[in-house]
Amino acid sequence: MRLTRGHLATSWLLLCSGSCATEEVGGPTQAPALRRSSPILFTSGKDGNFDIYIKETEGSAPRRVTAHAAVDQSADWSPDGFTIAFMSNRDGDFEVFAMIVNGRGLTQLTDNNSADGFPRWSPDGSRILFTSYRDGNFELYVMRADGTDQTRLTFNPGDDLGGGWSPDGSKIAFASGRDGDREIYVMQADGSDVVRLTHNTAFEGNRVEWSPDGSRIAFHADAGGNADIYVIDADGTNERQLTDDPAADRYPLWSPDGQRIGFTSDRDGDDEIYVMDADGRGLARLTSSVGLDVLDAWR
Length: 299
Prior knowledge:
Elements: H1 5-13, E1 40-44, E2 51-55, E3 63-64, E4 72-77, E5 83-88, E6 95-100, E7 107-108, E8 116-121, E9 127-132, E10 139-144, E11 151-152, E12 160-165, E13 171-176, E14 183-188, E15 195-196, E16 209-210, E17 216-221, E18 228-233, E19 240-241, E20 249-254, E21 260-265, E22 272-277, E23 284-285, E24 293-298
Antiparallel strand pairs: 1-2, 1-24, 2-3, 4-5, 5-6, 6-7, 8-9, 9-10, 10-11, 12-13, 13-14, 14-15, 16-17, 17-18, 18-19, 20-21, 21-22, 22-23
């Protein structure tokens, strides 16, 4: 079965109710977009169900780190690169799991009758931010890296999701529908001092990512009638649209040096991972597989 963005979206909507693989890299221009020392984590449906893969870049074949009949997606590296946190419905509903980067040592970090997902490690590796539906709508929570001390950060009837840590760990940027439409907000890491950054009628997407130097925030929005990648300064000013394509460009992620942004697009007929310079130029395609590929983490 060919898996697409619709299947991935459906897997997240459900929250509401060590083998190797090879892959051909599309086009000769992809390799220079990444560096040998900057591996990526991504979710792919190319083998018939969603699993987590690592790609060491520069034309190397990706290594499959999960191989389960369930949906495994939305992974993030711990700052030391030793552990991966991800979401999976392998126990019947979506929960947050962690494992060693070689695919061993699986540990379930959340366990409730609702659903938890989209884990993001704090910069110091001590905490994991995640989205949960356990209280009847999407809210942001934080827990210790071992799954203890799970604490709710947002309290609003509108969905709060897609959180990303500032590089110093003091703030969290996120998307929320609390004011009637989906906008970008920022708050202190303890959930206090919420400030709205965007003010428009577009639907801002469910991944919000701080640049490595803390000066900018990337997200996707449908202001032009379809999803494109945008960047704003950390105070909400100087909004810039980086992509302008009839296709859907979603799920932006900064490179470790802040010079590039990766994202998923169906501009070539299938959902693949692309990379561009931080100003929107220098576009390169990184993956070429059957089914959806989403860039989850880059280090």
